[in-house]
Amino acid sequence: MIADGVRRYERCTPRPPDVCRTTIPPMTVTFPEHDMDVPPGWITVVHPEGSRYFVNLEKRTCTEINICHEEICKDVEGYMNYLLGELESAILTREELQLDMKQVDLVLEPKKNPENVVIFHYYFVNHRDRTLFWLDEFDPNPKGILSNCQGVKSLSHIQLAVQAQYWRHWDYFPTLCSVTQNLVNEVKDMLVHATCDHMTSRQSSAAYDLIQLRDYISVVDNINVYPLEDQSKQCHPAVVIGRIMYTFTRNRFMNFHGENCARLSFGQTVHNWVYTPSLLMEVLAPLLFLDPVTHITELHKIFADKIACTPRWDAYSLKLRGQLHDSNLMATVLLNANVGFLAINTVDRGGKSAIQMASYMSLVTSLGSIVLGLSLVSQDRTCGENTASEIASFLTTLHHDDHGLEKLAIIYSLPKALLMWGMVFFCAAFSIDWWSSGDTVSRVVVGTVTLGVFAMILNGMIRTREGRHPLHMLGLLLRLLRHLAAAWEKSIEFFRIKRTQKDDSEQDVGLAPMGASQSEAEISQDSSSIHFDVEPPEVPGTDDDETISILSHNPVIQTNRLHGLDDEGFEGQNSDIGLERHGGV
After folding, report:
1. Shortest CA distance to 148 belongs to which of 301, 307, 263?
2. Does the CA dihedral 465-471-476-477 come out positive or negative?
3. pLDDT digits 0-9 by tens, 305-322
4. For the chain, give me the number of helices (H) and strands (E)?
5. What confidence tens digit (pLDDT) does each residue in 441-490 have?
6. CB 3.0–4.6 Å: which of 387, 429, 446, 552 could bond 359 by disulfide?
């Protein structure tokens, strides 16, 4: 058994609520510390947390089992005498041990096996060397002493795990632990060094964070050291020192201190584990605007080698909550913008237009971003701050041996990605609206600005992520995005040329005066090779130039069309090319 094997937090005897003593005898000046009949040679101690345990000062033995029952006391004392006798015999047999029995404690813990038979578990405490030891060979793997730490080979490395259990013993049974000024100074020096390490390195693997370290330093500064004779007052300082030293020693063990593979930064992997992105990640990363790449990089630093770093996880959760809050706010604004956009009369066409479909998709994605963001925020607020074991258990369930925490990274990326897609769909609806109802000038101006903004956004997203991600195919994806951007610009230019040609053909058909029949218009179009010497009919002037169908009577349109042709490669030709196409009108 190890110190963590003591079932202190599992041993709670329920008490019925109707059992209550409400009277106090008269002239009760002092109250007893307990109402139990403690056997001779034993004392009962109340831990600062509130639990009660029993100590035999002469034999330096501790146990949490209630020894006030005569049969239980006989069993405990029998095993105690047997184990101490075996230890004394081993000391006499093996001269290299050189143990002082006055610095050795014994802890007994009776437990039931699956056959419902009570078996006494134990461990010895060596205060001189700050370790635990056992009479027989001890396998640390099934006992949980190595926890999730893999690749342990040397006894010097296992010693750190055993020392961590020694300090856990200080936390559970502080009565026989002596607090000296040298020990207080040692703890203070460790806290100061860890504080300096965090201040000078953002990748520090030291325990705690800056705020916690400063608080612990102020706590240790206020520790009082009492004489060894007054052991009853040392419980509180011993518990404080035991908990701090346990965390530091455990951190040393998990980071392989003293080994040739020591973890010097919190995100470093000891086992040379390399993240391999799955096909799902390679497909979804561009669709989610590469946001999963950022999340998975941070998550793998927090959970390096399946070891959770609690301060880093708390900082990551705080940053994620802020991001979710901002995404929900922006998604709400976008939702209102879509509702207002759909209320416009020119947009509301019965739900069949491309504008409405794009706006509906924007509305749905923004609503999905809000719902998912609220769900994640609510779960985080409900669970509150988690311990290291709870964080490790949560991340282990989502961790894949090859792909790591991809699933969690994708989940955390969805609220922001849905918001981005909502913006894209809303921009598409807006672009279709102004493109379909605008003239050439507005299309050129707004289209140029739109392409420029799109190019700047795409370039910023690519440049800020180059060389900062583990995806081995992300370089190919980035080049693909560049080609897509170039193809988009060429397609816009192609559609603009086709639009210009379409306008020219419509103007060819529309040469006939207003009110002419369709046959007359066809005759006017078919006679493009015939030259007429007669003057064209005089068209009455109107306030609106758009009612004039003869091209020569609208110099504004003619100038714009010819300028568009010059842009398409017809520079140097006769400026009357438009008149020649229309039969020399």
Report:
1. 307
2. negative
3. 888 888 888 889 889 999
4. 17, 6
5. 888 888 888 888 888 887 877 777 655 544 444 554 565 566 667 777 77
6. 429
